[in-house]
Each structure stands twice: as structure tokens, then as C-alpha cells.
Amino acid sequence: GETVLAWDPATGRPLTDALVWQDRRAESVCEELAPYADELRELTGLPLDPYFAAPKMAWIRCHLTREGVVTTTDAWLVRRLTGAYVTDAATASRTQLLDLDRVQWSPRALDLFGLADERLPRIIGNAQPVGTTKEFGREIPVTGLAVDQQAALLAQRVTEPGGAKCTYGTGAFLLAHTGDTPRRGGSGLVSCIAWNLAGRTSYCLDGQVYTAASAVSWLTDLGVIRGASDLDRVGGSVPDSGGVTFVPALAGLAAPWWRGDLRGSLTGLGLDTTAGHLVRALCEGIAAQVVELVDALESPLETLRVDGGLTRSALLMQTQADLLQRPVEVSALPDATALGVAALARLGAESGGTLDTALPDRKPAARYEPRISAAEAADRRARFRGDVTALLARTPA
């Protein structure tokens, strides 16, 4: 949703490497536009941060090339497949160039980012037929476009206000459906489009943890574990984190703090600290950040629906339920994003279809109930918040 590149619209040939969502090179763009941060947030629903597409697009234009077009990768891929130059409404809402209320490109945002002369793709609905392609043999229709997290929200059947899901992949991403009007506020969460179907736009709140599986990879590179499949074995060798607190801000802190400049921290280490304690502390650090996002929703949540590769870790999921003090239901399909996009494709390919018929019945593979008291959960969260506060104090904005 936020990865961008410049490319030749006539040939589809990339003119630059892709700048992925974790690329922070556009920090300088955000610093220059800091006086307009509040205006941009009110207009687009997004905080000024290089995580989103527009700062990276502006950086490419300033530092790499003025040739071709510069877009998110979906527009490039669809052009290569079908010849159409389009993007879906949900992806457009992740650029920081979309007027969130009008669901149109914003001339004001484009002007602020120095992109007023760009030829941007046409915005279409998420299940709208795009065209056809012969790239895979016989001619087949192309339909069903979405951001990965919004697709997972759909797959988890969070289609009405009041529900939320969290996907645990490279990062962890919490999305909550907010209905047919965007909900802006000061909680630190992002307001964007969930999907646009048959002309009706649904909105969501979105919160990000920059490092989840990428933090697991970091521990793997250090030799602490052999991979994500080791989390339960190594973490299960000890009953708790042994007083170790890990703020895994290895690529900065995202929502609700939005401090991409911060570094992670490990505190409470001793000569008796083992690999198991580090794994436990990592799981608690990821889970604690997700709880902060749930709190930022400022609305009741009975159950958290989860998906993604890291949901295979029973230790992480139990830790999440413990700190959240609510049940956690694990999707039977870890890669829920694929299911959500498939449902959109089915809606676009079949006339008369509905979301209810396009999606299979939802049957969780596992359900985790809290096993610790509310007081203990509050104590663990307080330790985590204390370390975040210390990080913020050491590195003023």
C-alpha cells in the first residue's frame, strides 16, 4: 500500500528501485512540511511520516528522477497486466494525497508535496473490474484490488463498526471498522478507507507496529533463536521475562507515538538473563504495543481477531490475550490477506454477489483466553510504558 517507484508509463519499465514502507529516506520531506502537518492530517487522515507514499514520491522526484510517473506498486503492476492506469480507493487513501471525505485526489496535498503536475492513476472501487490479462496463459479478468491490511480486515469479516483485527507479519497492524464516515481524532491512529464497494465507502482506523516478525528476524540474526518456529520452544523454557523489558522499536515507534527516529531498548538485563527471557520480553513488547493501539481506539472491543505468520506462535498469542485482557481468536488461514482479495475478485467477477456470499464462514483455528490477572497485566504494561517514556525523554522530538 505504501511502497512506491517511478516507471515509464509507455513500457512499464521501472525507472527507480522501489521504496518500501520501512524506508525512512523521506524524513527530510516531512521535516520541511512540518508546518502543514495538522492540515494534511485533517485533509487526508494521515500523520506526516515517511511511512506513507507521498513523502517517498516527493523524495524520488527530488533525488532520483523527474521522468515517467511515480505511484504505488499496485498501479504499476495493474498497468503491466492489463494496460489500465488505476488504483483502488483503499490504496489511494494510504498515499496522503487523497481527500478522505471526497475520495478524490487532493489538489492541496499534491501542491504541498510538490506533486501538482503528476499524472496519477484513476481511483476505482475495490471490486471494480479493471480489464483482462493473458500473462498467465488464456485471457482472464482482473478485478479485486486492495491494501493488504484492509483485505485481511475483510477476510476476518470485520465489516461493521465495533470489530477489529490485528495482522502479525513484518510489522503488526491493527484495523477497526468505523462505518461510512471517516473518524478523525487525537488518539494517534490513522483514518483511512477500508474499501469502496458499489459506490459505498467504508472507513477504518489503523494502527501500526513497525517491527514484529522483523524483530524476530533480528533475534535470529543474533543467534538467539533459529527462527520464528523457535519462539515457543525457547520462550517456553522460562516462566516469564525475568524482569527484562524489550521495546522493539528497531525501525522506530509508529502509532500512537509516531516517532520513527527512536531506537529500541532492552532493560532489566542481568547475568542470569537467558535466551528464553529475551524471547519472552520480545513477545511482551510486541503484544504491549498492540494493546496501546487497542486502547487508542477509544471504543469497547470484546474480542481481537488475528492473522499473519506470527499467529502460529502460541506463546505470542497467549501473551497478547494476557496483556489485552480479552480473548484472541486466531484465523484458520494465517494469510488472511489472500482470502480478502479473493473475495473482492469474486465480487467483481460475479454479478449479484454480496460480501456475505463472497466470504467463507469464519471459524477460528484457536481461541486464547487471558491467564493472568488484570493487576498483573497492568503491571507489565506499566513497565513497558515506563521504558517508552524513557525513550521519548532521551530523544526529544
SSE layout and pairing:
Blueprint: E1 4-7, H1 27-32, H2 37-44, H3 53-63, E2 69-72, H4 73-82, E3 86-88, H5 89-92, E4 98-99, E5 104-105, H6 107-112, E6 122-124, E7 131-133, E8 140-142, H7 148-155, E9 164-168, E10 172-179, E11 190-197, E12 200-209, H8 213-221, H9 231-235, E13 245-247, E14 265-267, H10 275-296, E15 304-307, H11 314-324, E16 328-330, H12 336-349, H13 355-358, E17 366-368, H14 374-394
Parallel strand pairs: 3-6, 9-15, 15-16
Antiparallel strand pairs: 1-2, 4-5, 7-8, 9-10, 10-12, 11-12, 13-14, 16-17
Count of structural domains: 2
CATH superfamily label of the largest domain: ATPase, nucleotide binding domain
Strands across the major sheet, in which order? 11-12-10-9-15-16-17
> Sheet bearing the most strands, described?
7 strands, mixed
What fraction strand? 15-25%
Q: Which oligomeric state applies?
A: single chain
Low-pLDDT runs: none
Radius of gyration: 21 Å
The end-to-end span amounts to 27 Å
**Secondary structure: number of strands:** 17
CATH topology of the largest domain: Nucleotidyltransferase, domain 5
Using the alpha-carbon principal axes, give the shape.
Answer: globular
Q: Supply the CATH architecture of the largest domain.
A: 2-Layer Sandwich
